[in-house]
Amino acid sequence: MRDAVLTLTDAPSREAESAIADSLDAFNERRTGVAHSRPLAVLLQGANSGLLLGGLLGRTSLGLLFIDLIFVPDASRGTGVGSQMMSRAEEEAVARGCRQAVLYTIAFQAPGFYRRVGYQVFGEVRSGPADQARLFMTKAL
Fold it and tell me: Yes or no: is domain 36-140 CATH 3.40.630.30?
């Protein structure tokens, strides 16, 4: 495109992110005939305060559950809440027609947790120190 300009930023606006995501979703829908991409979140909130403490963010798309981010605060680790978040997301993904889940984690983060809830490593990308390798994991639902 002759009258287009590339702009590099580390702070894209929410409007820019939405426009790109919406355009890709529309392209994919035209190609597949399926409206397929749908956000999925499991939120961990204070029982009395309602304050957001952590949670899981992901999406479902064409039969896959993508786990994008998961955070469990220190005070809740080891209580089973992380496993419950994963289970809730996986149950919803199955209800949406998904048969597989995929995620990536960093070697120093939580690969042991993901293995305990049934995920297996299918790829690894090393970058920087060895403890910063990205581990790509999957699970049949």
Answer: yes
